[in-house]
Write a structure and sequence with these properties.
By secondary structure, this protein is an alpha/beta fold. It is built from ten helices and eight strands. Helix 7 packs across helix 10.
Length: 241
């Protein structure tokens, strides 16, 4: 698990450094943009710092499917350069709050700079791991995430933590890479492919099972984009009773 975590940390640290130096980066281990391309409408990104848009390493647009409401508190697991936090902040308005959680110092530096450039005052970025969310029980209304949960080596812990910090009636609405069918063991053990959003993808029914074990209800998984090697981008929704 530590090897996976360090590989992920190094990859996204380097991605943040690339963005800060003016170079684009991407989630794929093969340096193509099949997963990350055209996720946001131009109207959504208009007015955001270029660094936030360039640093988008996700596989979907969770803010568009989370049905965020004014005044809500939103938590983004693995917030990276901050694009989904900034979009969420607009949707929840000045009475709401958008929180980003990331374990990478360089990404946090980038995200905080993006928030400052955007003039966003209802956002906060916390350092921490998605397996141990540094927030109290029942403290957020909505959890979003963008192609990050698949990177964790302990997804059951992530989902249990997400359930813990959500308020009763709270919503889980994430974009993630989901596997359909079997994956060769050598791929699962490949740390580079894990950090590249491939090897760590949960099988669809396994994802449903883990959410149920954590306590979530009303679980749905909706395909949004087909990739390769039995992988799809999916919108995963659930609710805390």
């Amino acid at each position: 698990m530590n090897d996976i975590k360090e590989a992920v940390r190094e990859k996204y640290s380097n991605a943040a450094k690339s963005v800060l130096s003016g170079k684009p980066s991407c989630c794929s281990s093969k340096n193509d943009d099949a997963i990350t391309r055209d996720l946001y409408a131009l109207a959504e990104t208009e007015g955001l710092p270029a660094e936030a848009v360039i640093a988008s390493l996700g596989c979907g647009n969770p803010t568009a499917v989370a049905q965020l409401n004014p005044g809500e508190t939103v938590l983004d697991l693995g917030s990276g350069g901050g694009i989904d936090v900034l979009l969420s902040a607009k949707r929840v308005g000045p009475e709401g709050r958008a929180i980003g959680l990331d374990m990478t110092d360089e990404m946090l530096e980038l995200a905080r700079g993006n928030a400052q450039r955007a003039g966003a005052t209802n956002v906060e970025f916390l350092k921490g791991e998605i397996e141990n969310i540094p927030l109290p029980d029942s403290s957020v209304d909505v959890i979003i995430s963008n192609c990050v949960i698949n990177l964790s080596a302990d997804k059951q812990r992530v989902l249990a933590e997400a359930f813990r910090v959500l308020r009763s009636g709270g919503r889980f609405a994430v974009s993630d890479v989901v596997r359909r069918g079997e994956m060769p063991e050598e791929v699962k053990r490949n740390v580079e492919l894990w950090a590249g959003c491939i090897a760590g993808a949960l099988e669809e029914n396994e994802y449903r099972s883990f959410l149920g074990e954590a306590g979530f209800t009303d679980v749905t998984i909706e395909e949004s984009r087909i990739h390769h090697e039995g992988l799809v981008s999916a919108i995963v929704r659930a609710r805390k009773p």
